[in-house]
Design a protein that fits this description.
Length: 222
């Protein structure tokens, strides 16, 4: 299969942010005495389950859940500013692939979080800022679609934006949720191994690679 367009997931594939997002949720649930273990988070993440159902089951109403979400968002951005998130070699791989393919990012990240990570919309750029977005034809963030992964909408929208058939694209993911979205959209998916999601079910992936460098070697020799 000769692919011409690559659709990258973001968190876990291009930047190592998923553990920080989990931590921000865990800390808020802990204020209610709820222990949200990593394996429970990863299982719920695989199918796009709502972790705040645990808060609702503990008696929180909608207003209280909204406060917890806001506190999570604040804490997550604090972690993003202070923890290492770059994945070694990713910037170079993306730059190389951009010489041969059309690229886009299709992410569930909130706009504010994505922009903070990449120093967009007036945000500061530092040595910690990934050098990725300049290689992308476009970026689909959470505000750009209605139904999030594992729904196929984000990837179907990316196909429409490029004006291409599903057979021309390859999705690059690290999570079962993202794989489900790609499969539902009829697009081949390459899963990049990540220790955080290693226990999830990737049986429907077209390809598995240890890292983006291995994916690059495959793509440049297809």
């Amino acid at each position: 299969m000769a692919y011409t367009h690559l659709l990258f997931d973001h968190d876990g594939v291009l930047v190592n942010t998923e553990p920080l997002y989990m931590q921000a949720i865990q800390e808020q649930l802990a204020t209610l005495g709820i222990v949200f273990a990593e394996d429970n988070y990863i299982q719920s993440m695989a199918v796009g389950a709502d972790p705040w159902m645990l808060a609702r089951n503990a008696g929180c109403d909608g207003t209280a859940v909204d406060r917890l979400r806001d506190a999570r968002d604040t804490r997550y951005q604090q972690l993003l500013r202070n923890r290492p998130i770059r994945i070694a070699g990713v910037d170079a791989v993306v730059a190389k692939l951009a010489t041969q393919f059309r690229l886009a990012i299709v992410t569930t990240a909130r706009d504010a979080d994505f922009d903070l990570i990449h120093g967009l919309n007036g945000g500061p750029k530092t040595e910690r800022t990934p050098d990725l977005v300049r290689h992308m034809d476009f970026i689909l963030k959470r505000s750009h679609y209605t139904n999030s992964k594992p729904d196929p909408e984000p990837y179907s929208l990316a196909l429409a934006r490029f004006g291409i058939a599903a057979t021309q694209a390859l999705v690059i993911e690290d999570s079962e949720r993202g794989l489900r979205a790609a499969v539902a959209a009829g697009i081949d998916c390459a899963v990049i191994d990540h220790p955080f999601t290693a226990a999830q079910n990737f049986a429907k992936a077209r390809y598995r690679f240890a890292n983006l460098e291995a994916l690059q070697e495959f793509l440049l020799n297809q």
